[in-house]
Amino acid sequence: MATTIAGESYLGETLVQSLSPSGDVTMYLWPLRCLNNKMGGPTFGIDVRGVEVIRFDTHGPGGHWHDRGYDKLGAGGSHIDFPEGVDDVEKQLVWSLNQVREKTQQLLEEAEYPDEANSIDSEMLNAATVAVDAHLKKEGDLRPQAIAQGALEA
Fold this sequence. Notes:
The protein contains five helices and seven strands. It is an alpha+beta fold. The protein has one domain. Strands 1, 2, 3, 4, 5, 6 and 7 form a seven-stranded antiparallel beta sheet that branches. Helix 2 packs antiparallel against helix 4 (about 120-140).
């Protein structure tokens, strides 16, 4: 799973779901990741044997995503802005989960993980995206708690 960054805050229960029968490809979710600059939102991504390959930072303004190997290329080398109009957390979540459902195999291949791309189980993938959405609903709005702790600005 993705490595946490010193100084950031992570609120809510982390979710991890397998996307392949071997368990080599997983999807994780941090319900609320609070960056050092006091911005934040849900963050989720796809790992291959503990190496983060794809990440979605659905943080509203400033939100973005990473492909082609987050751990390999670094945050700057893999950074992609969301499409125009995909600017709030809800729109970013919907767009990102659709990308996972529709393009995980392609994104893994582009990141040079062809065997792992072929190992993706479509039922497990769909179940994981549904679980992310359900988990976020279960966790509820964690922003007030993060603001009270000083991890996010109001």
